[in-house]
Specification:
The protein is of the alpha/beta class. Helix content is 58%, strand content 8%. It contains 16 helices and five strands. It has a five-stranded parallel beta sheet, with helices on both faces. Strand 3, helix 5 and strand 4 form a beta-alpha-beta unit.
Length: 342
């Protein structure tokens, strides 16, 4: 049986007692580790490991001792309560052994949690779990988290009172940070709000949020938008040394100037227009609204034309150095800035 979306979240929070085992596999070890932790917690509770109700088996050990899995599933625990057996780094070489263990599993035996790298469609282990009525399979891909997953992380951290701006900020962070980093950020925010019953604000999230590659790339974009031509080259060289790619910078620039253009074109004015923009960090809205008003529609259209031209060149067969192309585009945009020379 395959688990997806909300059904996966429900199972991890309260595992179905009719299921003997779960397979969790994915290319990102951090994602797999986090879901494995949730599955074990749901099966044996927060005190399960301390009460020795969790048995860990390495895949390599099972290959040397095929009887170890059956023995672990049927072993009696010293403390009362549900038991779990964890097999990590499993591959198709264990498919037959796990299939035999599942065939002999009976209610009262320990539940089995198996983890591994992302398995292909032809995987025998994946086919075993997906085709079973007494086991489930959860595949983890590098997709942005769903709304349900973000909501579950917020609830886990105890963050239930959020302003609309805070929700937008956290949604952006969930899409830009690695899962483990996002969970750590939520823990930091929850600690900051400890004992404070007021709703979490966008400004508070922005204050506690870690720097991301996008915010680093945004430093070059801001320098161009503010006409600081001398700073553009310095920031670009720093980003190049940090391994930030030219495409990432170009995407950040396109997003920034599109938001400015939309705000500048809003009949209610740049401030109101920026307030309606999705994906704009709360802390940056006031400054970006001011930029939109200073630039005006025509200048922003010219800046966007430069970025579109650069994007087409980056996608073409041109052999020109890509970082140099992006730096040149930002220099040209800096030259258009109404604040140049201030």
């Amino acid at each position: 049986m395959i688990l997806k979306g909300a059904a996966a979240l429900r199972w991890l929070a309260a595992p179905d007692p009719a299921h003997a085992a779960i397979l969790i596999h994915g290319a990102d070890p951090m994602r797999v580790a986090m879901k494995r932790q949730e599955a074990v917690l749901g099966l044996i509770g927060p005190d399960g490991e301390a009460e020795m109700r969790l048995t860990r088996l390495a895949a390599a050990d099972l290959r040397r001792d095929p009887a170890a899995l059956n023995d672990a599933l049927r072993a009696a625990g010293f403390f009362p309560g549900e038991r779990a057996v964890l097999v990590e780094d499993a591959t198709d070489t264990l498919a037959d052994q796990i299939a035999a263990a599942l065939a002999e599993w009976r209610p009262g035996d320990a539940r089995l949690v198996v983890t591994g790298n992302l398995l292909t469609g032809k995987s025998a282990l994946k086919a075993l779990f997906e085709g079973s009525q007494t086991a489930v399979a959860l595949a983890l891909y590098d997709d942005p988290p769903s709304r349900e997953e973000v909501a579950a992380e917020l609830a886990r951290a105890g963050l239930t009172r959020l302003s609309r701006e805070a929700e937008a900020e956290l949604d952006m962070l969930a899409r830009s940070l690695e899962p483990g980093d996002f969970r750590q950020t939520l823990e930091k925010v929850a600690l900051y709000k400890w004992g404070d019953d007021s709703p979490l604000t966008g400004a508070e999230v922005a204050l506690l949020a870690p720097a991301t590659v996008e915010t680093e790339a945004g430093a070059a974009v801001q320098a161009a938008a503010e006409g600081r031509m001398g700073q553009v080259g310095l920031v670009m060289r720093r980003l190049d040394g940090q391994g930030v790619g030219p495409v990432t910078i170009a995407i950040a620039a396109m997003r920034h100037f599109r938001a400015l253009h939309a705000a500048a074109s809003d009949p209610a004015g740049p401030s109101a227009g920026m307030g309606r923009q999705r994906g704009v960090p709360f802390a940056a809205r006031e400054a970006m609204a001011r930029q939109a008003g200073q630039w005006g529609g025509r200048r922003l259209e010219a800046a966007l034309a430069i970025l579109v031209e650069t994007d087409l060149t980056l996608r073409s067969a041109s052999k020109a150095p890509q970082m140099a192309l992006v730096e040149r585009a930002l220099m040209r945009i800096a030259g258009l800035s109404p604040r140049r020379g201030e």
